[in-house]
Amino acid sequence: MSILVTRARILIQQNRIKEAVDNLHQALSESPEETEIHYLLAECMLIKGDLKGAREYAEEFMRGEADNSFAHYLMSRIHEQEDDLDKALNVAREAIRRNPVEPEYYGLQAHLHLRLKNYQECLDSANEGLEHDPSNVTCLNMRSNALIKLKRSTEAFETMDHVLEHNPESSFSHATVAWNHLEKGDHKKALQHFREALRIDPNSQFAKAGMVEALKAKSPVYRAFLKYSFWMSNMKSNQQWLLILGGYFGARYLAGMAREYPELAPYIWPVVIVYGVIALSTWVISPVSDLFLYMNSYSRHALDRLERNIAPFTGLALVACALGLIGYAATRFAPWLGMAVFGFTMIIPLAIVRHQSEKNWQFAAITAGFLAGVGLLGLGQAWVNEEFGMLAFLYLAGIFGFQIISNIWSSRA
């Protein structure tokens, strides 16, 4: 192993990725046949989020190490980052077939089952990995996650205590324990572990994201929303769609019943309105909570760059909504009400942009901007003509369609 490769390994451990890449490129020019350099470059690209570069170097590594189980493990991780979970799982199985005693491979397989919501398979994979190494951190964390999802809380927290006892300086373990506490509704304990995770690794995105959720969970309203979010996220994709579509068509059916049987309307409309408020609140509560964090000079730093960029637009949308309601209350002029609806509904595409992966983010941002433009033109048209035209209809249809696209993205991820 050359001194450049050794130095690059140290730099990677210190999270000095740019310097590590420079050393590795120099080493590659001197020893292009050394496969380990391609592996390390693939790792660096993964850390940077450059999936295309990671794949190129990983494929080069695999060409030189075709029988190496670790090459398949590396490629499986890249497929997972690309959200191709089925392919990632197949490649992870191949890594296990080539080396059935490596616990880290079982940990990866368990992680993929967790993302695919195969919770029993996740637990089985983690347990199998722990048979080869009872102290493997990845398998222990995956075991605790699976047990939480399977509602076996006592065993889950026993596993978490075991993890932290043997790995008190593991940022990933503290963050995993924190997320599990958050799912069980204990945001105070979650905050403690997220803080510890960030003390150990201030750059952990896994812990940063959890810290934001735990801070927002100080609000009882947001805690209820978080409980609903975990409940929904634990469902399979087809179950989520059944619930979403069932709620939508159920509400439409009840609204039709209320119109057809006026004597039942006083009992039906409150149910429909409550459902509508809950359905809309699931879209707006998260960006609105981000706005409150953004307005606090301390908690603002917990938000990532995208969340900080979106928060002021959420504030503008809420101001537009409030002004529209005040204007309509004072004048009964319909375009003011349209302004209120526009302000409130624009929070939905902002929320969608906020939650998108790198692969979908650009399309989501362009779509949100396009919808804002159509909505503003529709408002202008209503102000001139004193009635709502086709642009207003297109805006509302676009908001509805964008929600469907977002749900499809979420169910695939």
Which structural class matches the secondary elements?
Answer: mainly alpha
Mean of pLDDT: 85
Terminal CA distance reads 39 Å
- Strand count: 0
Largest sheet: none
* Helix percentage: over 70%
Return the string of H and E elements: HHHHHHHHHHHHHHHHHHHHH
CA radius of gyration is 25 Å
Q: How many helices in DSSP terms?
A: 21
Proportion of residues in extended strands: under 5%
Shape: globular
Blueprint (SSEs and pairs):
Layout: H1 3-13, H2 17-30, H3 35-48, H4 51-64, H5 69-81, H6 85-98, H7 103-115, H8 119-132, H9 137-149, H10 153-166, H11 171-183, H12 187-200, H13 205-216, H14 220-233, H15 237-260, H16 265-294, H17 305-331, H18 334-345, H19 347-354, H20 358-385, H21 390-412
Describe the structure.
With 413 residues, the protein is mostly helical. Among the domains are: 168-221, Alpha Horseshoe (Serine Threonine Protein Phosphatase 5, Tetratricopeptide repeat); 232-412, no CATH class. It has helices at residues 3-13, 17-30, 35-48, 51-64, 69-81, 85-98, 103-115, 119-132, 137-149, 153-166, 171-183, 187-200, 205-216, 220-233, 237-260, 265-294, 305-331, 334-345, 347-354, 358-385, 390-412. α19 (347-354) packs antiparallel against α20 (358-385). The chain is globular.
List keywords for this structure.
Serine Threonine Protein Phosphatase 5, Tetratricopeptide repeat; 82% helix; 413 residues; 0% strand; 21 helices; mainly alpha; globular
